[in-house]
Write the structure tokens for this entry.
Amino acid sequence: MNYSVFDFIGNIGVFFIILGYLLLQTNKINSTDIKYSLLNIVGASLVIISVMENFNMSAFII
């Protein structure tokens, strides 16, 4: 298994998505806060970039 730049980009995207969820659950941000939306949009975009290299339907759908 080769770890590529695309894998790293995907991992950063997953980190942003999980960070947004963690901050929401700990009441550090609100679901209507732009920060929450930005974390999700950036995270999802990075995951999509990562699946452009090695497509994975599960990752793309999530």
